[in-house]
Design goal:
By secondary structure, this protein is of the alpha/beta class. The protein contains eleven helices and nine strands. The protein has helices spanning 13-35, 48-55, 60-63, 89-95, 98-101, 111-116, 134-140, 144-157, 221-224, 238-246, 270-273, and strands at residues 6-10, 38-42, 69-73, 75-77, 172-175, 199-202, 214-217, 227-232, 265-269. Strands 1-9-8-5-2-3 form a six-stranded parallel beta sheet. Strands 4-7-6 form a three-stranded antiparallel beta sheet, covered by helices on one side. Helix 1 (13-35) packs across helix 2 (48-55) and helix 2 (48-55) runs parallel beside helix 4 (89-95). Bound molecules: 6-phosphogluconic acid.
Length: 282
Amino acid sequence: MSGEPAIRVFDDPTATSRAAAAAMAAAFIEAVQARGRADWATTGGSTPAGIYRELAVAPLRDAVPWSSVHAWWGDERFVPRDHPLSNVMPFDQILMSTAARAGLSGTGADAAEVELGIEPGVWMPVENVHAPQVTNAITRATGIGSVALDYEAELRAAPLAVADSGLPIFDVMLVGIGSDGHVLSVFPGSPLFDGSAWVSAVPAPEHIEPHVARLTLHPGVLEAARLPIVVAHGAGKAAILASVLAGERDERKLPAQLARRDGAIWFLDRAAAASLPDPLSG
Ligand code: 6PG
């Protein structure tokens, strides 16, 4: 991959999430205007919660044509959808406000209040939420391989354009980065660089938590995406960000460098950006 990303540095995680959410909303609007729908691959870990909170309330909630936005997952852990480690659960809880819609929020909030914007939450049709069907595979004991195959089939049936690399083109890919330089569930030394499957099962990593099997999109989707957005907060990310953004390029050793490309935007807070060389650190 060539070129360098735009790097934007903010005072704290809230300001970082707000700016990333605004850039994503603008890209959703543009994609819907240009192609009639926006395909968004979202992420897991701690990164997206703050972004979902921003997208779930005015002004972004009201600016985005949510009925034309389709959500996909860059990776998911092999746990039920309502498990604390699930990458889908924060999306359901914060962005979709499913508990309030089901009358289970514990606050008395209900579906009408979400629809009217009195309670946070976007009114995205459930058929636009393309979550990997891990819960089904666990209850039916069909295994993680079946989820990967089904997810790839669902993606291939969707009207996403396909890049010269043979991989689907997402309008927006939101990713976090791991302290070992992983992105998606593509870890350093991953064999997935040499494969062509759009979706693969990945054994539980031993070197990094959580030690749970996952499924992940092919690393090359980050090269194909129209707008990769990377978000990182906190001092714990400072060292790896310096290696990924200012060190020698070797995507197989540091898969997060797949998003070190022109057209990508990295949203960092000051603590995360602290070890970047001056010209990069904002
Ligand atoms: C996962 C991920 C992973 C994550 C990074 C950053 O399922 O583990 O999707 O790639 O985005 O590890 O995680 P944090 O946001 O928690 O720092």
